[in-house]
Amino acid sequence: GVNTAHPSRTGDVVVILSPPYQFDAAAPGQAISDSVFFGQHGFMPDLVDLDANINMHATFIAGGPDFLAGATVERVRAIDVAPTTAFLLGIPGPAQASGSILYDALAEGEHLSELTMVSISDYHAQFAPLSASPDSFEDENALGVSAPIAGAAHLLPWINHFREESRDASMFVTASDIIGATPPLSAFFDDMPAIEMMNAFNLEVAAIGNHHFDVDYQWFIDLMPMAQYPSLAANIVLQEGATPVALPVDGATPIADTGAPWAPTALFEFEGLTVGYIGITTLDTPDVTRDGALGPYEMLEPVPVVNRYAEELRAQGADIVVVLAHEGATAGTLSEPTGPIVDITDASIGVDTVLGDHSSQQVLSLRDNGTLLTQNPGRGLTMTRTRIVVDTRSGEVVYKSADYHLPWNISVEPDPIVTARIDELSSDIQPILGEQVGVAEGPILRSDNCGGETGRLCESLIGNVIADAMRFTYDADFAITNSGGIRADLTCPPEDNPDDFCAADLEPNAITRGQVLGVLPFGNVAVTVDLNGAELKEFLEAGLVGSPSESGGFQQMSGICITYSVDLEPGDRITNAVHQAEDGSCTGEEIDFSEGATYTVISNDFSMSGGDGYPNFSERMVTLGILDEVVAQYLAGDTGAHAAGELVTPVIEGRIVCEGETCPEATNP
Asked: Which CATH superfamily is domain 435-659 in?
């Protein structure tokens, strides 16, 4: 009931009195005394009890030509003043404003209609709550506090709260990767729970993400009928001359305009308001999915597609045009971002707002062309409320603003239906995924040796474990795997979380089957290919193209140690490469990169098939085991490559060394 609950600034116990008791107006020397004046504090903000001399409601008076003379507004909160003032000034509201615009107090209020859109980004079926710090401390040894945030059962009440704040139309929308790269609670069930949860969230429209094609286009098409919302992608169309693929439901046919079984746009009618949506998918999709994952479909440049459909939607009567884009900002600030989605937004014509995705960056930016661009970090860490106001007399958009919010779990009652469903899913797979397969000497996290949280900058402990498991299990010369395929921490967290697959009584740094599946959720298969020295160098160089920036293609490896320079041109950056010695040190013989040398290289089918920009050797692949099972069996000692019960003790060995002034700084050089 109060707007002051905060993970680190609210006390463990909050006392709110019941009338007529009060905290102030005390008489000296008396534990309890009568109140002698009106308007005391210490009660719930909506409390009115005139008999007890209590009224927590203050008086709000507004005047001027923009206000409706003589109007009485029943419910005005302090948090409504800033959004209303910003609207009257014609400027975006505060970045974290949570109140409403007081239309009933405005002279033109009856002629205004507001669309509220609540959005999240890159959700990836994050059913369990995450942990985040509500404060940042720069002082050394300062005590930081972490608190639970988001998670499906707590996120839904937040979504509903901001939808209920709207006087008029409200929608929950997303450009997320809804399926693909999901935790075990969804991945184990072929991602059907991911779609089920979006249905429970009352999702009304979504753009298609690149991870929707993680298996292939047919996998996504087979899942589409489960969704109670349309999935949009205007720039994924049937190749010329290809045969259309129909949805696996009676009466479903491909969209005539694109030849695809998903629509390019969607139109929604509300009282006095028509809203058109365009879906866009990142052009990176063919590079970050398996070879052939798009099947008979191809990608189109987004800007011409957006502008074409924006014009068509306007012709169909859309008052508001929204682009749901699974494409993101990659740098810059909250209000001045840079990256592909910024370029698309700046080149758009006739678009009111673009909701970005795909990269984990917070964006609230009103661009020079009048288009509002927003984006959230992934997995529900933040959510954005976007408001578009239309003058119903002219049909013109007269105002647009957005604010973002952190969905802390504190004081939020989890949705009981969502909670029950998550408990049911957990119960079904707990006996399998809760099985301990190993234990480590210390935490083995997703982050790398340069502090990159997603492990895409430098050598990482988790990358070394995975690569070692692959190489030793199949006795290959070298193992190389892309960092983009590593999605979570390997060891169980120190704090008990009832929503994960780590029982509270497990020993510290235990590794369960569920943790391994969370690390490697794509269902990739381990494969070997015999490469000559020149092909090996080409394969290694492909993983270094994006350095020193974060890149999903950045490789983790075993059996080989390389040194590379970011000052050299991509494709020719490796300056030294040697075999790992038997003790793991990088002191072995020099690698022969000539065509006369031959090496057996183990990787995953995604990378060996050209994913993340690697050369495509799919025609020569020998398929082995499913990658997460390979790692789990290695840790459990089932393959003999790692002794059962032996501590997992990875170390940073200098397998990947960067040279140059712009190299990421290693913490354990």
From this structure: 5'-Nucleotidase, C-terminal domain (3.90.780.10)
